[in-house]
Amino acid sequence: MKYTKFTYISLLLFSLALINCKNQEPSENQDTENKNKEIKDATEAITPPEGMVLIEEKIFLRGAKSGDAYAMPREKPAHMVKVDAFFIDKTEVTNAQFRKFVDETGYITVAERPIDWDEMKKELPPNTPKPHDSILQPGSLIFNKNVEGVVGMNNYSQWWTWKIGANWKHPEGPESSIEGKDNYPVVHIAYEDALAYCKWANRRLPTEAEWESAAQGNNTDNIYTWGNEKEEIINKANTWQGQFPVKNIPSDGFSYLAPVKSYEPNSAGIYDMLGNVWEWTSDIYNENYYININSNEVVDNPKGATSYYNPQNPYQVEMVMKGGSYLCHDSYCASYRISARMSTSKDSGTDHLGFRTVLNFAMLKNNKP
């Protein structure tokens, strides 16, 4: 090959360009590191709002973990997600906090409102017969503590009872109260109720991804909030011991609902993310949501499915709830795992479902949800 003067000049310029690029790499990397450090320092400099903790931006594994024998198909495949920094409540919203909201706004929860059959039947299977008027009264679902035996585990009506007069102020019916239970998580909260509280508090509900990020604490792929050892659950969370739903042995200190902060927090300082009460998220439930995610890519701040799908309940839009409750047991509902995802209809309130709120930096800056 014949080299011309132009060829030599071109080669020389190309070589100089390579040298210049190599010389610039450390500077560019340094600039990136400096920017990341500035962001981290600025984040850490912000004082978390009272009762909240900061969850820093991170990439973690969402969904079923390796070695999790209880993982369900709706938790698979596991995939990496990136979630921006945000603040989250250390505990579920308590009776005392919800009472303050009600006192200041006069808000009436869904469980306290008269039932409109014409509206209710729109979310039920066609031709559902109208119940007797004595049944169509304000109330909510409570766990039946007097179950003596069940036939199979598929019919949950054997241990759930519609209780007229059950609501957040009367969690087990009109004869009960929350007197002396200010530090218990508020229950019988429908999705609409949780949103109303969030609007008043200038907060919002967490996405499922944010919830899992917080539950992981300073980790990225734990099965439980404390690690991967299931046997530690008796000292780490309020769940069911004994024979569900007939006999509950309070080996963990509580037969049913427990006050917040009854167990040690996770590594981020957050309490009771597993067991005690389920928690609402802002994600629409879709049983096939994870299947349609590209598990080879990192998903950036996922907001959940865009459409609802649950073949078990096609008539009512349901939302994702996380964390399990005091009713979770290996034989029926082993949902005291970070990846566990269940659903419930928006208008449902029960005595084992509550919520906690989150706040991101844009909301903090603008002081609005």
Automatic annotation (TrEMBL):
Keywords: Signal. The keyword Coiled coil does not apply. The keyword Signal applies. Residues 1-19 form the signal peptide. Residues 50-358 form the Sulfatase-modifying factor enzyme-like domain. This is Formylglycine-generating enzyme family protein. It comes from Winogradskyella litorisediminis.
